Automatic annotation (TrEMBL):
Keyword ATP-binding among UniProt keywords: no
Name this polypeptide is given: CENP-V/GFA domain-containing protein
Similarity field: Belongs to the Gfa family.
GO MF, any single term: carbon-sulfur lyase activity
Chain ranges of the CENP-V/GFA domain: 10-127
Highest taxon of the lineage: Bacteria
InterPro entries to which the protein is assigned, alphabetical: CENP-V/GFA, Mss4-like_sf
Keyword flag Lyase: yes
Keyword tags: Lyase, Metal-binding, Zinc
Length: 137
């Protein structure tokens, strides 16, 4: 284990590199969402980690576009390359976290997938076989 003084910095970007971000400190547990919205948004599954919103800094937000997928949540993606990246609760007072797509990270995450959610809505073309906890909703 390293000494506690320096917080870990995790880095990531969209496919084209227009949006780069940093997360200071440990990433939250990994989660895979199989709901229909996440399936259609990502093309498969939204694998993400939740971090405190304060821990995330985005270098340049000019190409970041937000799609309000419901009244409660907006989804952030790159307007140039289309990479799905952020899942952001709109009520930021109540929810002080943001989810980041694990696939966006370009540095090691040290994250393990701990649970699957909305498995009732999963696609019919794959099975979940990693042994992580499964929640139907
Ligand atoms: Zn991009």
């Amino acid at each position: 284990m390293s000494k506690a003084a320096e917080p870990t910095i995790h880095q990531g970007s969209c496919l084209c590199g227009a949006i780069k971000f940093k997360v200071t400190g440990q990433l939250g547990a990994g989660e895979m969402c199989h709901c229909q919205q996440c399936r259609q948004w990502t093309g498969h599954i939204y694998a993400s980690t939740e971090v405190p919103r304060m821990a995330l800094s985005i270098d340049d937000e000019s190409r970041l576009k937000w799609y309000p997928s419901s009244k409660k949540v907006r989804r952030g993606f790159c307007a140039d390359c289309g990479s799905p990246m952020f899942f952001d609760p709109i009520d930021q007072e109540k929810h002080q976290w943001i989810a980041i797509a694990l696939g966006s990270f370009t540095t090691p995450t040290a994250v393990k997938i701990e649970q699957h959610i909305f498995t009732l809505e999963k696609g019919d073309y794959y099975e979940i076989t990693d042994g992580a906890k499964q929640n139907e909703t």
